[in-house]
Amino acid sequence: MSTVAxxxxxxxxxxxxxxxxxxxxxxxxxxxxxxxxxxxxxRKPRMTDVTSVPKGTSLSRSPIRDAYSxxxxxxxxxxxxxxxxxxxxxxxxxxxxxxxxGVVFRARDKETGDIVALKKLKLEEEKHxxxxxxxxxINALMSCRHENVVHxxxxxxxxxxxxxxxxxxxxxxxxxxLLTLMPAPFLQSEIKTLMLQLLSAVAHCHANWILHRDxxxxxxxxxxxxxxxxxxxxxxxxxxxxxxxxxxxxxxxxLWYRAPEILLGATNYSTAVDMWSVGCIFAELLLKExxxxxxxxxxxxxxxxKLLGPPTSATWPDYCTLPLAKTIAISPPHAHQFRQRFPHxxxxxxxxxxxxxxxxxxxxxxxxxALHHPYFSExxxxxxxxxxxxxxxxxxxxxxxxxxxxxSAPLRAADRIFAETELP
Amino acid sequence: xTPTLVPLATHSQIARTPSGExxxxxxxxxxxxxxxxxxxxxxxxxxxQKQVAVATAQILFxxxxxxxxxxxxxxxxxxxxxxxxxxxxxxxxxxMRDLINVYDLLLQRNSHELSLHSSPPPSxxxxxxxPTHVPGHNLVMASPAAPxxxxxxxxxxxxxxxxxxxxxxxYNLKDALVVxxxxxxxxxxxxxxxxxxYGTLINYLRLLGLxxxxxxxxxxxxxxxxxxxxxxxxxxxxxxxxxxxxxxxxRHLGISLPSTPPNSWWDLFDAxxxxxxxxxxxxxxxxxxxxxxxxxxxMRMVNKKEVRKWLEExxxx
Lengths: 424, 317
Ligand SMILES: Nc1ncnc2c1ncn2[C@@H]1O[C@H](COP(=O)(O)OP(=O)(O)OP(=O)(O)O)[C@@H](O)[C@H]1O
Ligand SMILES: [Mg+2]
Description:
The complex is a heterodimer.
Chain A: H1 3-6, H2 23-40, E1 90-98, E2 102-109, E3 115-121, H3 132-143, E4 152-157, E5 164-169, E6 173-174, H4 175-181, H5 188-207, E7 210-211, E8 220-222, E9 228-230, E10 237-238, H6 260-263, H7 272-287, H8 297-308, H9 338-341, H10 347-356, H11 367-371, H12 416-419
Antiparallel strand pairs in A: 1-2, 2-3, 3-5, 4-5, 6-8, 7-10, 8-9
Helix pairs in contact in A: 5-7, 7-10
Chain B: H1 11-15, H2 18-21, H3 26-46, H4 51-64, H5 75-89, H6 96-116, H7 168-187, H8 198-207, H9 214-227, H10 238-253, H11 265-268, H12 273-286, H13 292-300, H14 304-315
Helix pairs in contact in B: 3-4, 3-5, 3-6, 4-5, 5-7, 6-7, 8-9, 8-10, 9-10, 10-12
Bound molecules: adenosine-5'-triphosphate and magnesium ion (MG).
């Protein structure tokens, strides 16, 4: 019944939270046979006097429970209940960037010497206590731990109630800066690796009931080992919860990466909005510049219509039911222009791109499905992350080489990526 | 997909709670914590709040006392803060003013009941049953401050006086609420992950072929909710707690399930008998009869000042 089990394509189908428990079935099924055999030869269990229950708390300390499933990890794997440490456990190095939502610093853990990123949450507005958006950000990071999601180490506090910092692993680059600095686009093999990492992070978030809602290249961090880390869960939200009065807000996702259903006023959108953003990121990796650089929502819609061809009742059956559909003038029908825009792309690559940039959220490909798209198994195969070049980190305040440095400069390992040429 | 791993109290946190270190007996601490959970439950009903938010609040509330002594913060304030926070976490936020009004009512009612029974403060530890005590008698008029009983039922009817819109009482509660929410966050290290047991219960009942047994389902569901008044959700993983609820329900109804090793049904859910049985103990202790004096003592100690007073009076001995 879960989309994963069936492998069906209904990415935005409303899952309900009750579905979740079914993953346990998988492990239980094996032992269920033994149980049903037992059930048939029932013995009366010893009836215990419920008043003679034990006093106090004793934990079974059985260290080895080898027969136990991976779905119930041993108690020791759970984190302890632990108060926040003080921000003074860290030494502040340099400010990385002031985002719209908080300030990010580079810092050093005084105990371990580890270099970390500290994101100071903006808490001034205290009319409603601790802001729900900050809670969502912290909760999303904590419940979506994954190799390709930026690792949250802890949350530390300053002297006053308004000083709260999220401590993350420090990641050297963000993909946006990287793309603007590179003289040549990523290779196909590298793009495949990056897309697989992005998709597996997004699939993981969606499986954990989290919508990111702000996927874009500046929120994708990349370390020197060719690994992408999805960051900035400042707009993240749980889905599958009953949506309150008024539905979900449309004030999400940076304009260029915003899905058409949000642009047209949908308030019950789901995981598919992230998949549209993934499509925009895929295109940006190929083009080395953002796909839809629109100044406003109307211009963005017309750029989308131009590339995809205007929506029809076949490509987007629910289009007419969207709140703003009536107010938009649709241009006369024409075919999509993906081929013109991406002339060097293989047929499979184009198929993945159009599956992501699909009008109808119901038909748009899910992250789980996209991970298995044949594009990733055709030549050239995804490049091993270790073979990625490394770059000087802007965030770490390192001196960056000008993109076109003197030709006599020695060709560092870091520059290999610039030297390789791409075959169409 | 690996399940979300919620924080659980460590062995040493369980063995030595901060309140215990301050000299509060374990049974009294358990009762106080249960009382805070009852307040959350009642406030949830009055606010028409979703059960998921109430349950989450109760679990956060229980976690808090593994890192904080009851002498330091009041049950009233922390339970209010937990419900406020949990409502945001569960995407059904409540208005501060609504919550404060409801808590004001609950606390006024609490004081009213106390005043009906007010007597000279006991000088000996009264948490243990006192054989000379006659519940509900002779205590009512002991204090001149207590309102006169009405002739019909021997008790004064509780009449709630709402706070004035800009009253000090309101702002005091509001400050307490903001502080409580932040203290919960800080002391729990901002790890607010909670896994609720209901989905797992449905799944297990299905696997045990009990879904059509309405009474068993209802009873198990009830035990799970009652368990929210105990610390078990902060000590054990959900499969153990759900197994305990099923165990209590099936034993109560005389339903037989395979219980002989190596094919005991709880093994199917990766729960150890010892743990399941301990959880049953926690739940069953909720139903132990309390004397009136025990109950009043807990109601008084909704405020940390009374906890401190109790500790001074009982630990100097
Ligand atoms: N873990 C990290 N390591 C290194 N740099 C980071 C890290 N986290 C964030 N940054 C840098 O700080 C910038 C802002 O961080 P983030 O996106 O989380 O904040 P924000 O305020 O929500 O930003 P915005 O709203 O502008 O997207 C990122 O674009 C990145 O350059
Ligand atoms: Mg950002």
